[in-house]
Amino acid sequence: MSDINTRELRRLIRQALIENQSPMMDDDGHEVDMAESDLYKLAHYAPDVYGMVDNYADLPGWVQKKITLAADYIGSVKHYLEHEHFQAKNHLGDFKDGNDL
Questions:
Q1: What is the distance between the alpha carbons of residues 7 and 65, in angstroms, rounded to a whole number?
Q2: Mean pLDDT of all residues in the chain?
Q3: Whole-number pLDDT of residue 63
Q4: Structural domain count, the chain
């Protein structure tokens, strides 16, 4: 599956949040702005953290756990958005068996 560009990713995040009408989302799309801000920080912090980890022979367990959780969470979001993009592109609708791509 091809990579999603930044514009498409922002559109998909905004669409998913609006469609799901999160209880924390206001009429101005504040939650979308927060998600975009968090993704911006993630994109800028991740390369720095990646470079810093090489300086440590043994990371504390809690640090390793945070890295694992962050990787798992962002991977889940990526796969969800890819799935949504695939469905929209191919007009498939919801899968009846509930399996992710």
A1: 31
A2: 77
A3: 94
A4: 1
Calculate Rg over the CA atoms of the chain. 16
DSSP the chain: -PPPPHHHHHHHHHHHHHHHT-TT--TT-HHHHHHHHHHHHHHHHHHHHHHHHTT-SS--HHHHHHHHHHHHHHHHHHHHHHHHHHHHHHT----TT----
- Long-range contact set of residues 2-9: C-beta below 8 Å, sequence gap at least 24: 4/81, 4/82, 4/85, 8/85, 9/39, 9/81
The amino acid sitting at 25 is M
State the residue range of the domain holding 77: 57-91
Identify whether 80 is part of a domain: yes
Q: Is residue 21 part of a domain?
A: no
pTM equals 0.56
